[in-house]
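Quick question, first post here. What does this chain look like in 3D?
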Amino acid sequence: MKNIFISILLVAFYSIHAQDFKSYQFYDRKGKEVKTEKLVDELAGYDVVFFGENHNNSINHWLQLKVTEALYQKKNGQLILGAEMFERDNQPQLNKYLSGMFDAKTLKDSARLWNNFSTDYQPLVDFAKDKKLPFIATNVPRRYASQVSKEGLESLKSLPSKDKAYIAQLPIRVTLETPGYPEMKKMMGDHAEEMKVMNFISAQAIKDATMAESILKNLQPGKTFIHYNGNYHSKEFGGIYWYLKQKNPNLKMTVISVFESEDLELKVPEKDYIPTDFNLLIPADMTKTY
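> Answer (accepted):
Ran it through. C-alpha coordinates below.
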Protein backbone atom coordinates (compact mmCIF):
# COMPACT_ATOMS: atom_id res chain seq x y z
CA MET A 1 0.00 0.00 0.00
CA LYS A 2 2.87 2.30 0.87
CA ASN A 3 4.51 1.64 -2.50
CA ILE A 4 1.28 2.45 -4.34
CA PHE A 5 1.00 5.76 -2.48
CA ILE A 6 4.59 6.66 -3.33
CA SER A 7 3.97 5.78 -6.97
CA ILE A 8 0.93 8.07 -7.09
CA LEU A 9 2.97 10.91 -5.60
CA LEU A 10 5.76 10.39 -8.15
CA VAL A 11 3.31 10.39 -11.05
CA ALA A 12 1.75 13.62 -9.74
CA PHE A 13 5.17 15.17 -9.27
CA TYR A 14 6.39 14.36 -12.76
CA SER A 15 3.07 15.40 -14.29
CA ILE A 16 3.42 18.84 -12.74
CA HIS A 17 7.04 19.22 -13.80
CA ALA A 18 6.37 17.91 -17.28
CA GLN A 19 4.14 20.92 -17.96
CA ASP A 20 5.83 23.46 -20.20
CA PHE A 21 5.21 26.82 -18.54
CA LYS A 22 5.58 29.42 -21.28
CA SER A 23 6.25 33.03 -20.38
CA TYR A 24 5.43 34.33 -23.87
CA GLN A 25 4.82 33.29 -27.45
CA PHE A 26 4.84 35.30 -30.69
CA TYR A 27 2.53 34.40 -33.57
CA ASP A 28 2.20 35.76 -37.08
CA ARG A 29 -1.08 36.92 -38.60
CA LYS A 30 -1.94 33.38 -39.73
CA GLY A 31 -1.46 31.89 -36.28
CA LYS A 32 1.98 30.37 -36.89
CA GLU A 33 4.53 30.51 -34.07
CA VAL A 34 7.35 33.00 -34.67
CA LYS A 35 10.74 32.66 -33.01
CA THR A 36 12.23 35.89 -31.68
CA GLU A 37 15.18 35.70 -34.09
CA LYS A 38 12.79 35.49 -37.03
CA LEU A 39 10.70 38.30 -35.55
CA VAL A 40 13.69 40.63 -35.35
CA ASP A 41 14.77 39.73 -38.90
CA GLU A 42 11.33 40.74 -40.17
CA LEU A 43 11.05 43.90 -38.08
CA ALA A 44 14.33 45.18 -39.53
CA GLY A 45 12.63 45.59 -42.91
CA TYR A 46 10.03 48.10 -41.70
CA ASP A 47 10.09 51.88 -41.49
CA VAL A 48 7.90 51.92 -38.36
CA VAL A 49 7.30 49.22 -35.76
CA PHE A 50 4.50 49.64 -33.22
CA PHE A 51 5.17 47.51 -30.15
CA GLY A 52 1.93 47.36 -28.18
CA GLU A 53 1.89 46.78 -24.46
CA ASN A 54 -0.21 46.22 -21.40
CA HIS A 55 1.27 48.98 -19.28
CA ASN A 56 1.69 46.94 -16.10
CA ASN A 57 2.95 43.64 -17.52
CA SER A 58 6.56 42.87 -16.66
CA ILE A 59 7.28 40.33 -19.43
CA ASN A 60 5.81 42.75 -21.99
CA HIS A 61 8.32 45.45 -20.98
CA TRP A 62 11.22 42.99 -20.82
CA LEU A 63 10.45 41.81 -24.36
CA GLN A 64 10.32 45.40 -25.61
CA LEU A 65 13.85 45.89 -24.31
CA LYS A 66 15.23 42.58 -25.61
CA VAL A 67 13.66 42.99 -29.07
CA THR A 68 15.00 46.56 -29.23
CA GLU A 69 18.50 45.40 -28.31
CA ALA A 70 18.38 42.66 -30.96
CA LEU A 71 16.96 45.04 -33.57
CA TYR A 72 19.76 47.49 -32.83
CA GLN A 73 22.29 44.77 -33.63
CA LYS A 74 20.42 43.66 -36.74
CA LYS A 75 20.15 47.25 -38.06
CA ASN A 76 23.73 48.19 -37.16
CA GLY A 77 22.43 50.95 -34.91
CA GLN A 78 20.04 52.44 -37.47
CA LEU A 79 17.24 52.82 -34.95
CA ILE A 80 15.01 55.55 -33.53
CA LEU A 81 13.00 55.04 -30.36
CA GLY A 82 9.79 56.77 -29.34
CA ALA A 83 7.00 56.29 -26.85
CA GLU A 84 3.50 57.26 -25.82
CA MET A 85 4.74 57.62 -22.24
CA PHE A 86 6.56 60.89 -22.97
CA GLU A 87 4.79 64.10 -23.98
CA ARG A 88 6.06 66.49 -26.61
CA ASP A 89 6.72 69.39 -24.29
CA ASN A 90 9.01 67.19 -22.18
CA GLN A 91 11.37 66.48 -25.10
CA PRO A 92 13.97 69.04 -23.89
CA GLN A 93 14.20 67.34 -20.48
CA LEU A 94 14.40 63.91 -22.09
CA ASN A 95 17.16 65.10 -24.41
CA LYS A 96 19.16 66.45 -21.46
CA TYR A 97 18.93 63.07 -19.76
CA LEU A 98 20.01 61.29 -22.95
CA SER A 99 23.00 63.63 -23.29
CA GLY A 100 24.04 63.21 -19.65
CA MET A 101 23.15 66.76 -18.58
CA PHE A 102 20.35 65.45 -16.31
CA ASP A 103 20.52 62.53 -13.92
CA ALA A 104 17.49 60.32 -13.28
CA LYS A 105 16.30 62.37 -10.31
CA THR A 106 16.46 65.66 -12.23
CA LEU A 107 14.53 64.09 -15.09
CA LYS A 108 11.91 62.82 -12.66
CA ASP A 109 11.61 66.24 -11.00
CA SER A 110 11.35 68.18 -14.27
CA ALA A 111 9.24 65.95 -16.55
CA ARG A 112 5.82 64.30 -16.23
CA LEU A 113 6.96 60.70 -15.97
CA TRP A 114 4.64 57.75 -15.48
CA ASN A 115 4.71 56.18 -12.03
CA ASN A 116 6.25 52.99 -13.43
CA PHE A 117 8.99 54.82 -15.33
CA SER A 118 11.91 53.46 -13.31
CA THR A 119 10.86 49.81 -13.63
CA ASP A 120 9.32 49.73 -17.10
CA TYR A 121 10.61 52.57 -19.30
CA GLN A 122 13.92 53.74 -17.89
CA PRO A 123 15.67 50.58 -19.20
CA LEU A 124 14.62 51.56 -22.74
CA VAL A 125 15.64 55.19 -22.26
CA ASP A 126 18.96 54.10 -20.75
CA PHE A 127 19.56 51.84 -23.73
CA ALA A 128 19.03 54.81 -26.05
CA LYS A 129 21.33 56.90 -23.87
CA ASP A 130 24.06 54.25 -23.89
CA LYS A 131 23.86 53.78 -27.66
CA LYS A 132 23.40 57.50 -28.40
CA LEU A 133 20.05 56.90 -30.09
CA PRO A 134 17.22 59.43 -30.43
CA PHE A 135 14.27 58.86 -28.11
CA ILE A 136 11.22 60.83 -29.20
CA ALA A 137 8.52 62.08 -26.83
CA THR A 138 5.61 61.53 -29.20
CA ASN A 139 2.44 62.09 -27.17
CA VAL A 140 0.29 65.18 -26.81
CA PRO A 141 0.53 66.90 -23.40
CA ARG A 142 -2.26 65.37 -21.34
CA ARG A 143 -3.79 68.75 -20.51
CA TYR A 144 -4.90 69.14 -24.12
CA ALA A 145 -6.42 65.66 -24.30
CA SER A 146 -8.28 66.45 -21.08
CA GLN A 147 -9.50 69.73 -22.57
CA VAL A 148 -10.81 67.93 -25.65
CA SER A 149 -12.58 65.35 -23.52
CA LYS A 150 -14.44 68.13 -21.69
CA GLU A 151 -14.87 70.81 -24.37
CA GLY A 152 -14.31 69.13 -27.74
CA LEU A 153 -11.76 69.60 -30.51
CA GLU A 154 -13.06 73.07 -31.41
CA SER A 155 -11.74 74.39 -28.10
CA LEU A 156 -8.16 73.94 -29.33
CA LYS A 157 -8.51 76.59 -32.01
CA SER A 158 -8.15 79.41 -29.50
CA LEU A 159 -4.84 78.14 -28.10
CA PRO A 160 -1.69 80.23 -28.65
CA SER A 161 0.61 79.09 -31.48
CA LYS A 162 3.27 77.91 -29.02
CA ASP A 163 0.75 75.53 -27.46
CA LYS A 164 -0.48 74.26 -30.82
CA ALA A 165 3.10 73.21 -31.59
CA TYR A 166 2.63 70.35 -29.15
CA ILE A 167 -0.49 69.09 -30.94
CA ALA A 168 -0.97 67.48 -34.34
CA GLN A 169 -1.84 70.02 -37.01
CA LEU A 170 -5.45 71.09 -36.76
CA PRO A 171 -8.06 70.23 -37.85
CA ILE A 172 -7.83 66.59 -36.80
CA ARG A 173 -10.17 64.21 -38.56
CA VAL A 174 -12.14 62.03 -36.15
CA THR A 175 -14.14 59.19 -37.63
CA LEU A 176 -15.65 55.93 -36.46
CA GLU A 177 -14.00 54.35 -39.50
CA THR A 178 -10.84 54.21 -37.39
CA PRO A 179 -10.44 50.69 -35.91
CA GLY A 180 -11.00 50.72 -32.17
CA TYR A 181 -13.11 53.87 -32.06
CA PRO A 182 -16.47 52.11 -32.53
CA GLU A 183 -15.48 49.96 -29.56
CA MET A 184 -14.93 53.10 -27.50
CA LYS A 185 -18.39 54.33 -28.47
CA LYS A 186 -19.87 51.02 -27.38
CA MET A 187 -18.07 51.31 -24.04
CA MET A 188 -19.90 54.59 -23.39
CA GLY A 189 -23.28 52.84 -23.69
CA ASP A 190 -26.33 53.42 -25.87
CA HIS A 191 -27.74 56.14 -23.64
CA ALA A 192 -24.63 58.34 -23.53
CA GLU A 193 -25.01 61.83 -24.95
CA GLU A 194 -23.62 61.97 -28.50
CA MET A 195 -21.44 65.04 -27.85
CA LYS A 196 -19.87 63.44 -24.78
CA VAL A 197 -19.18 60.27 -26.75
CA MET A 198 -17.47 62.14 -29.58
CA ASN A 199 -15.46 64.27 -27.16
CA PHE A 200 -14.30 61.08 -25.44
CA ILE A 201 -13.26 59.55 -28.75
CA SER A 202 -11.71 62.85 -29.90
CA ALA A 203 -9.49 62.88 -26.80
CA GLN A 204 -8.14 59.52 -27.93
CA ALA A 205 -7.83 60.76 -31.50
CA ILE A 206 -5.75 63.79 -30.54
CA LYS A 207 -3.27 61.45 -28.85
CA ASP A 208 -3.16 59.08 -31.82
CA ALA A 209 -2.86 61.86 -34.40
CA THR A 210 -0.13 63.65 -32.43
CA MET A 211 1.89 60.49 -31.98
CA ALA A 212 1.55 59.74 -35.70
CA GLU A 213 2.75 63.23 -36.59
CA SER A 214 5.66 62.97 -34.14
CA ILE A 215 6.81 59.73 -35.75
CA LEU A 216 6.46 61.16 -39.24
CA LYS A 217 8.51 64.25 -38.35
CA ASN A 218 11.36 62.18 -36.93
CA LEU A 219 11.64 59.39 -39.50
CA GLN A 220 14.99 59.05 -41.23
CA PRO A 221 15.72 57.08 -44.41
CA GLY A 222 17.13 53.63 -43.73
CA LYS A 223 16.27 53.73 -40.03
CA THR A 224 13.55 51.83 -38.24
CA PHE A 225 11.42 53.83 -35.80
CA ILE A 226 10.24 51.55 -32.99
CA HIS A 227 7.34 53.00 -31.02
CA TYR A 228 6.13 51.75 -27.64
CA ASN A 229 2.47 52.38 -26.91
CA GLY A 230 -0.52 50.97 -25.12
CA ASN A 231 -1.99 48.13 -27.15
CA TYR A 232 -5.19 50.07 -27.81
CA HIS A 233 -3.29 52.77 -29.72
CA SER A 234 -2.36 50.37 -32.54
CA LYS A 235 -4.59 47.30 -32.20
CA GLU A 236 -6.30 46.12 -35.37
CA PHE A 237 -4.16 48.63 -37.32
CA GLY A 238 -6.09 51.52 -35.81
CA GLY A 239 -5.09 54.51 -33.73
CA ILE A 240 -1.59 55.79 -34.46
CA TYR A 241 -1.14 53.36 -37.35
CA TRP A 242 -4.35 54.61 -39.00
CA TYR A 243 -3.41 58.29 -38.72
CA LEU A 244 0.09 57.68 -39.98
CA LYS A 245 -1.29 55.73 -42.93
CA GLN A 246 -3.50 58.71 -43.84
CA LYS A 247 -0.45 60.97 -43.95
CA ASN A 248 1.88 58.60 -45.79
CA PRO A 249 0.32 55.45 -47.26
CA ASN A 250 3.69 54.37 -48.68
CA LEU A 251 5.33 53.81 -45.31
CA LYS A 252 6.13 50.21 -44.49
CA MET A 253 4.67 49.72 -41.01
CA THR A 254 3.98 46.77 -38.77
CA VAL A 255 2.17 46.16 -35.49
CA ILE A 256 2.96 43.87 -32.58
CA SER A 257 -0.26 43.40 -30.63
CA VAL A 258 -0.45 41.86 -27.19
CA PHE A 259 -3.00 39.47 -25.72
CA GLU A 260 -3.22 37.89 -22.28
CA SER A 261 -4.11 34.21 -22.14
CA GLU A 262 -5.34 31.82 -19.45
CA ASP A 263 -3.99 28.90 -21.50
CA LEU A 264 -0.72 27.60 -20.07
CA GLU A 265 0.48 26.65 -23.56
CA LEU A 266 -0.36 30.14 -24.88
CA LYS A 267 -2.19 28.87 -27.94
CA VAL A 268 -3.98 31.31 -30.25
CA PRO A 269 -7.37 32.09 -28.66
CA GLU A 270 -10.53 31.07 -30.49
CA LYS A 271 -12.52 34.10 -29.28
CA ASP A 272 -11.87 37.84 -28.92
CA TYR A 273 -8.72 37.61 -31.00
CA ILE A 274 -8.15 39.92 -33.94
CA PRO A 275 -4.51 39.49 -34.97
CA THR A 276 -2.18 42.04 -36.53
CA ASP A 277 1.14 41.25 -38.25
CA PHE A 278 2.74 39.91 -35.08
CA ASN A 279 0.91 38.91 -31.92
CA LEU A 280 2.40 38.46 -28.48
CA LEU A 281 0.60 36.11 -26.12
CA ILE A 282 1.51 36.35 -22.44
CA PRO A 283 0.10 34.61 -19.36
CA ALA A 284 -2.79 36.46 -17.75
CA ASP A 285 -1.22 35.84 -14.33
CA MET A 286 2.20 37.22 -15.30
CA THR A 287 3.67 39.47 -12.60
CA LYS A 288 2.33 43.01 -12.81
CA THR A 289 4.46 46.06 -12.04
CA TYR A 290 1.56 47.90 -10.41
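The two ends are 49 Å apart (CA to CA).
Strands lie at 25-28, 33-34, 48-53, 79-87, 135-139, 224-230, 253-261, 278-283.
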